[in-house]
Design brief:
The protein is an alpha/beta fold. The protein folds into two domains: 10-238, Purple Acid Phosphatase, chain A, domain 2, CATH 3.60.21.10; 243-299. Helices cover 18% and strands 28% of the residues. The protein has four helices and 17 strands. The strands form four sheets. It has a six-stranded mixed beta sheet, covered by helices on one side. A hairpin with a 5-residue loop joins strand 8 and strand 9 (172-173). 35% of the residues are buried.
Amino acid sequence: MKVPFRKLKHIHHISDIQIRNLKRHREYEEVFNKLYEEVKKNPKNAISYIGGDIAHSKTEMSPELVDQLSRLFKNLADICPLVIIAGNHDANLNNPNRMDVLTPIVENLNHPNLHYLKRTGVYRCADTNLVVWDVWDKESDYIKAKDVKQDGTNVVLYHGTVDRSETDLGFKLPSKVKMKMFKDYDLALLGDIHKRQFIDKEETIAYCGSLIQQNHGEDIGKGYLLWDVPKRKSQYIEIPNDFGYYTINIDNGKLPDLSDLPKKPRVRIRVSNTKPAQLKRVMTQLKKKCKVQESVITRVDGLSKD
């Protein structure tokens, strides 16, 4: 792949964006604008990399999705070279004859800085080998570090579950992709698991987590990892979001500490030991603090009565 530099210094490691066909586009646009500003802080000798699940609905595409996805790719590629790989949400993996969501957008943009690394292979980026393990291939087909013949830093780009990776709820996931498969690779930049985490003690094999909170099961703070390739180190870059999924536990008619409450939350409210009049008063207080986008109230005890 052609890039305008000889040595790769930084990789902006982004993943699991999951743009919907119609919902949350205003929220996503606000976050994307903040993302562009962060990438602009380190544009030289750098690439942006999106590790799959860029869209949400597999092969279903609305005009609004095409528009937002096209602008995301163009705006990032205008700053520095953009590398993307496919995730399971970007294609129908059960029907390889169907075109994936990303291909027609990439081909129509025809941007010289946009590189869709669709298939398993070794792609030379300046002095670095980007080694893609694609979502269509079997684990047995993935390239081992000893089979990479070119000199330079070797970086795995993979969308999928690594054995013993952890979900936001703390579950350890099984997978045929084991730690030993990363032996002798310098870095592995992963997508698919939405919880930001390192798989190894050296912190060179990492999920950057989802760019934008997807549901109540995920933490509020989201962003991406900025990698210093020569140093093999990463820095977490948080991308603020005025929207968010937020759970509030109301007990004895009192609001808890809401210091991290987003400005425009989708709230899930769990109520206990609280009378209807108290709940009404608390909800009034809440709506003065923020612009509630949607709310679901659940009683976690018996119904209280006045």
